[in-house]
């Protein structure tokens, strides 16, 4: 299970496959998504817990109508009616994840969802970007005492501060903030991932990324910038159209994402200018000073008979100026590594 405070975590980045509406209202597909997420190497699967009635109301006023290339032409109520995950599925879905040793959790969109998820004994809770301003919901969720993850899309710094303060005031001890751009899909130019280390320092908590860009590049970069968690929408195939499929990644992409983040974790390492074990074997092939033309005893060393070449068995190249103009102590054949012993004092 993800514990941002643990010093014994084997992995630095906790990778979450966000299934959201990509089950297409099929329980069988939802189960398959969990299994595919596991096979791809994800640590967790996440769903969303709401109904159309718990997240909005059925109303045709202009303010309830959506303007979006993919979601437009319907009201919020109509969209959420299509996209929600039936609550009757959750026990089965959590059981599948548990059997696969995957973390199962969900985004709660109101108090009834928090209560429902608590009955399932989920290990953590998530607050979506659009609910970050609902401080009452944040406090209610924080009172469970479980790790709390909050997406920060659309939020100003002050709004993030207010959300974190509300969560801590209500008892949250383990908070993870997710850098997020709440546009679908999000543009790489708008990601500003340098915010991740700044958020860590500012709020003294774990920080990750909820990535809505197309592809996996932003998520991998986030890992290199210190992200503790990466969340990415996941579908079996973008050809199967659901409300979220057009900005979701497929199993082969999730597998690549996991593999590349694991490589990034190893590559980050620590600050150091030491010679690695592998490098030490190759130092012999560095440049050094060699006699590149037969030299007679007493002959002067010049740029015509001494050069800096590979391998590294002669004097370091920095000694070239010291060598030039000196005389040879004895005869030296071409291809001999130059040492100070060859120089007449």
Detail the topology: elements first, then pairings.
Elements (H helix, E strand, L loop, with lengths): L13 E5 L8 H14 L3 E6 L2 H4 L20 H8 L6 H10 L3 E6 L2 H10 L4 E3 L7 H8 L5 E4 L5 H13 L5 E6 L14 H9 L2 E6 L5 H8 L4 E5 L17 H18 L8 H6 L5 E4 L14 E4 L10 H4 L12 E2 L8
Helix pairs in contact: 1-10, 6-7, 9-10
Could you provide a short overview of the structure?
This protein has 345 residues and is α/β, with parallel strands linked by helices. It has helices at residues 27-40, 52-55, 76-83, 90-99, 111-120, 135-142, 157-169, 195-203, 217-224, 251-268, 277-282, 320-323, and strands at residues 14-18, 44-49, 103-108, 125-127, 148-151, 175-180, 206-211, 229-233, 288-291, 306-309, 336-337. The protein has two domains: 14-268, Aldolase class I (TIM Barrel); 277-342, Type Iii Antifreeze Protein Isoform Hplc 12, CATH 3.90.1210.10.
Name the beta content range.
5-15%
What is the CATH architecture term of the largest domain?
Alpha-Beta Barrel
**Mass-distribution shape:** elongated
Described by strand count, sense and barrel closure, the largest sheet is:
8 strands, parallel, barrel
Structure description:
The N and C termini lie far apart (71 Å). The strands form 2 sheets. Strands 1-2-3-4-5-6-7-8 form an 8-stranded parallel beta barrel, surrounded by 7 helices. Strands 10-9-11 form a 3-stranded antiparallel β-sheet, with no helix packed on it. Helix 9 packs parallel to helix 10. Helix content is 32%, strand content 15%. The relative contact order is 0.12. The chain has 2 domains: 14-268, TIM Barrel (Alpha-Beta Barrel); 277-342, Type Iii Antifreeze Protein Isoform Hplc 12. It is elongated. The protein has 12 helices and 11 strands. It is α/β, with parallel strands linked by helices and 345 residues long.
């Amino acid at each position: 299970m993800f514990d941002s405070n643990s010093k014994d975590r084997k992995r630095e980045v906790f990778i979450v496959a966000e299934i959201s509406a990509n089950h297409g209202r099929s329980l069988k597909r939802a189960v398959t998504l969990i299994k595919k997420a596991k096979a791809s190497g994800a640590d967790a699967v996440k769903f969303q817990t709401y109904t159309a009635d718990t997240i909005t109301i059925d109303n045709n006023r202009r303010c309830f109508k959506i303007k979006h290339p993919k979601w437009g032409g319907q009201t919020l109520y109509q969209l959420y009616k299509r996209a929600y995950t039936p609550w009757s599925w959750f026990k089965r879905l959590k059981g599948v994840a548990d059997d696969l040793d995957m973390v199962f959790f969900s985004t709660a969109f109101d108090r009834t969802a928090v209560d429902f998820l608590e009955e399932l004994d989920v290990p953590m809770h998530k607050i979506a970007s659009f609910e970050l301003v609902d401080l009452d919901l944040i406090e209610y969720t924080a009172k469970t005492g479980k790790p709390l993850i909050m997406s920060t899309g659309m939020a100003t710094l002050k709004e993030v501060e207010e959300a974190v303060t509300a969560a801590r005031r209500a008892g949250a001890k383990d908070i993870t903030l997710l850098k997020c751009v709440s546009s679908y899909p999000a543009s790489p130019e708008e990601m500003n991932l340098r915010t991740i280390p700044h958020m860590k320092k500012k709020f003294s908590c774990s920080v990750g990324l909820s990535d809505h860009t197309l592809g996996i590049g932003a998520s991998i970069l986030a890992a290199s910038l210190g992200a503790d968690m990466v969340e990415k929408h996941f579908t079996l195939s973008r050809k199967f159209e659901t409300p979220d499929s057009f900005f979701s990644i497929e199993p082969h992409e999730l597998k690549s994402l996991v593999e590349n983040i694991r490589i990034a974790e190893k590559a980050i390492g620590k600050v150091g200018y030491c010679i690695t074990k592998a490098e030490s074997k190759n130092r012999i092939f560095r440049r050094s000073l060699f006699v590149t033309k037969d030299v007679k005893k007493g002959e002067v060393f010049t740029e015509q008979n001494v050069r800096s070449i590979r391998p590294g068995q002669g004097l370091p190249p920095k000694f070239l100026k010291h060598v030039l103009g000196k005389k040879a102590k004895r005869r030296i054949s071409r291809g001999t590594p130059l040492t100070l012993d060859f120089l007449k004092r």
